[in-house]
Amino acid sequence: MKLHKSSRSWSKLHDLFIKISTCRLPNFPIQIILLALSHFLLPASCSRKPPPLPILPLPTAFQLQWQLGDMALFFHFGTNTFTDSEWGSGHAHPSVFNPTKLNASQWIRVAKDSGFSTVILTAKHHDGFCLWPSDYTDYSVRSSNWKNGNGDVLAELSAAAKDAGVGLGIYLSPWDRHETCYGDTLQYNEFYLAQMTELLTRYGGITDVFLDGAKGEGEKDMKYLYASWNSLIHQLQPGASIFSDLGPDTRWIGDEDGSAGFTCWSLYNKTGFEIGDIDLRYNSEGDPFGPDWIPATCDVSIRPGWFWHASEVPMSATSLLEIYYKSVGRNCKLLLNVPPNSSGLISDEDIQVLQEFTELRRSIFSHNLAINAVINASSIRGGIQDTHFSPFNVLKEGIYTYWAPGENQYKWILYINLQELVSFNVLQLQEPIYMGQRVIEFHLEALTQDGVWTRVVNGTTIGYKRLLLFPKLKSQYLKLVVDKSRADPLISYLGIYMDSVTVFRDTPDKKSRASFNGSQVLQITTTHNSSLRDVV
Prior knowledge:
The chain is an alpha/beta fold. Helix content is 23%, strand content 21%. The radius of gyration is 27 Å and the shape is globular. It is found in: Secreted, Extracellular space, Apoplast.
């Protein structure tokens, strides 16, 4: 290796060696010494190592923005709110719709204060009643008593969302129990696209379009021209993410419990499936070999029903926190339904639960217990002198910096020295998903006070965010080991937290037989290493 030749550099190097040899650098971290020495040993023509190649498939710009949002609120609102129904018949008289205290700003304020970046409104549910004055039907707010027929729920919500910087999405039910042309493929698809065009051209930017294949048994046969719908939506709102059973931009997780599979890939293969005819387990887990990037949405309602009913009460904040672990914590977006009541407001009891849920998340995740840790790695892309891929990047919030291991390595390990004994029971990991989803399997080890390495928890996929809950432990030294990966693993964030609220239950999920956090908790695999040389 060619050394720098300047006498000044050699003088600095000589002085550094003298200081080290005469012990004039007490407690000087060996990492700093190595970095300093490496400065003098760099080739004269050295340049920074480029990032590794992304691994396909990759998210689009709006899919990436969609995932960064973590959570969205769903507002189911319409004639069903006033008729104590879930699936309206399409025959309720428009006059029943009269939310005398409707305040869209309150809805948006609740969403924003609770950490939800986007709201989605049921502009039209299965009963066909429209919350905007559509030119293509008289079954809308124009025919109601609300504001003497001059109201427009979507317009008010759009204005409030824009003022608050909250994203706005719309749900336009394909199934329409009121429209007489439903069942005629050509006429109804023309009707549907005409209404979709109204929604996407009158109310500013739309971030999400929610579609589904719901339809009651025995209803008219109907073919939806989804390809035409998707093309028009992306033409009119290029930045909108389209949700359906299988995308094209985000897919349904396969249940309405807010729970993803313990393994959850954003990768997917939509070939051979149709909306309304999918493999629920496949939707829940995704596909490591899938050619399509279609991340999952976990939808669930804060109440037993999707529309507001006076007889129902919301779930507890701790229940919402468990759902958060199983949705956002499993590489998905949480879509939480909070239905406005018949006055046109979010109910006080729902607001109280959301406030408690927000405080729980804040109390757990506001401070990374590893923030002051010393981080080493089994290797670093570009070598120890290349800070662009340093293991210390995993302590920076966000996904736009990351640790990258050296090329052609067969051991991918992060060594974490917390610098003191710390009690914790939650691990958070993130990948820079704009480089592709990579990690297949990983595990966390902790060094006990007896000098024994204990495997604490096994995990599978990471993706945008992975949260793992396990029994409380206390340790200073940890190892994050990536066991399998589609390409060199890239880790953008590592967090250690203490959740003193959630009761850990190592019990299977109903659908996937996964444990509470979708991983196996292990406290039996141990290795002795009293020297601690791997981590200090």
